[in-house]
């Protein structure tokens, strides 16, 4: 039984890593920021200081004082590209020396293309009070490594879906101060797998699959201070403690390891997603031109471990560090019916050298955005944006071990590279008032 629990720990370690793989899509680690096509056009600068339902995700104060019902709907097509390449990954089976892990040395485009929707609505109750609701999917992705990939022992297939439901309330306290608060209700569903080495390289690999889901809660709060020329927004999105309940299934092990082939239900995993401290500003420098800026601090150090409940009762370290993003951009009123936008954003990775594996090939990145809005009529506006995200080259170097702490312990010294990584993102949306 003890050797089986050790195997389950290896599986759970893979689970923690899987949550970080959304990184190569766009934002930071497993956070996706495409919650508004309007925001994407200026590379997510100034969102905490803008108004209307489209900015609810970044600051619940954005809807205070609205005069009409405001609806925002958007969708982003995310097209990630890149290579995860082996440099010299080694494996040492019991009683043997280190040997090349083998398998396909280069995996191209391991992250699947995806469509990310977002919806928000805000309804005024009085000239100062408004209620809102935002529905988004901030942590969703799918990865698919081939069964013979060099990374198969640490990454195979991963699916992660989250749904965030954010009911909000906001109030215009004075003519220059807006305040808001929100509850974040999040559903998470995860499924992932990876190969397990048999004791002989001549035998086919075993396999383990983890599944889990759960509902969790957080909160958001913010203010906006504004006059005729400047709006400053400050908001806070809390960290969320997630608990997933699910199962581990292990199959395909042979010889002395065959007794570990089984399915264990009732496994729980607990981890945190980070808080966000958001400071944004919009400067109206002329009747036609508005400059935007925004900085976000992410408390990724909350994701320091994943804690496993009964029957495993242990914790696996992750070692993330706090990170940040900075963005600047502009909105230009080109005509009565056309607004043009552009912006640039830089973000640092929360992953650290020595802890980065094939499920988390994260890197610092630059996000370049351009877009615009067409005012179809006084009540309907259509938004479109294009983003190009460039990722720095980065190492994949997290050493792991199958069957850790047992006589069958099999170290895997990972030595790989994330290279030529980029993403193309096309966002469209509409905003309506009535």
Automatic annotation (TrEMBL):
Topology of this chain in the membrane: Multi-pass membrane protein
Pfam families in UniProt: Toluene_X
TM annotation in the entry: none
Residues annotated as signal peptide: 1-24
A single Gene Ontology CC term: cell outer membrane
This protein's record includes keyword Glycosyltransferase: no
Coiled-coil spans in chain: none
One GO MF term: long-chain fatty acid transporting porin activity
Localization annotation: Cell outer membrane
UniProt keyword annotations, A-Z: Cell outer membrane, Membrane, Signal, Transmembrane, Transmembrane beta strand
Membership in a protein family: Belongs to the OmpP1/FadL family.
Protein name, entry field: Aromatic hydrocarbon degradation protein
Native organism taxonomy: Bacteria, Pseudomonadati, Pseudomonadota, Alphaproteobacteria, Sphingomonadales
